[in-house]
Amino acid sequence: MTQARTYDAQLFAGRQVLVAGGTSGIGAGIAAAFLRQGARVQVTGATAADVDAAGQDAELKGAEVRRLDVRDDAAVRACVQALPTLDVLVNCAGILRRGDELDPDVFAQVVDINLNGSMRTCAAARDMLRASGGCIVNTASMLSFFGGGLVPGYSASKGGVAQMTKSLAIAYAADGIRVNAIAPGWIATRLTGALQADPARSDAILARTPLKRWGTPEDVAGAVLFLASPAAAFVTGVILPVDGGYLVS
């Protein structure tokens, strides 16, 4: 019966979802998917421009949009506490600074947003998720599993997200809170636009990807909906690759 409910068009009707970093890219795709399932959704963006762009996005129509710097612990707590309830927290806030991350200061900034920011939101949401029997879905990466010479901060942060997810799955289990993560592969977003436009790089990526295409935010959103659904009621501490088979090839 729970498996059937995974595909219920109103599975999340009336549920409150917070997508940190949900104003664009993968996060926006996840937020839009929850909206289509009937959820009440709040998305956050780091800048006023992010918030303005999300307000003009037809796919996010109906979502509440809020500016949030996940480096600011007080702001994170205020954002969560302003919600009437919370059933699902999705952590998608993150940055990548290709090449510049070899500088220790930039490295630290990337880790603070991608890893520490996710921990801040998880900690802030714990009490409300305990009350609702809710769950958390973090965003790891293929680079949780292997390194990236130009993105050591991103790789370290995403490796940390994977380990944090496993650790919080244990720590929050007594509260009835499941904690999982998705690990997207090569997803067609603005962030990967330059790679998609470079035939040599794109061809190399597709050559290693068994399904022979770039992923979409909708592909990732489907995995998040599963992890947040009753069908995953006995699933916690999982890092789920959504990569078209890239990691196993």
Give a nutshell description of this structure.
This protein is of the alpha/beta class. It contains nine helices and seven strands.
Number of strands: 7
Instruction: Profile the largest sheet.
Output: 7 strands, parallel
User: What would CATH call the class?
Assistant: Alpha Beta
Rounded to the nearest angstrom, the distance between the terminal CA atoms is: 35 Å
At CATH level 2, the architecture is 3-Layer(aba) Sandwich
Rg, nearest Å:
17 Å
- Beta-strand residue percentage: 5-15%
Number of helices: 9
Give the SSE string. Answer: HEHEHEHEHEHEHHHE
Envelope shape = globular
What low-confidence regions span 5 or more consecutive residues with pLDDT below 50? none
What is the CATH H-level superfamily? NAD(P)-binding Rossmann-like Domain
Mean pLDDT: 96
Structural class: alpha/beta
Main sheet strand line-up: 3-2-1-4-5-6-7
Q: What number of structural domains do the residues give?
A: 1
CATH topology: Rossmann fold
Q: Into which percent range does the helicity of residues fall? A: 40-55%
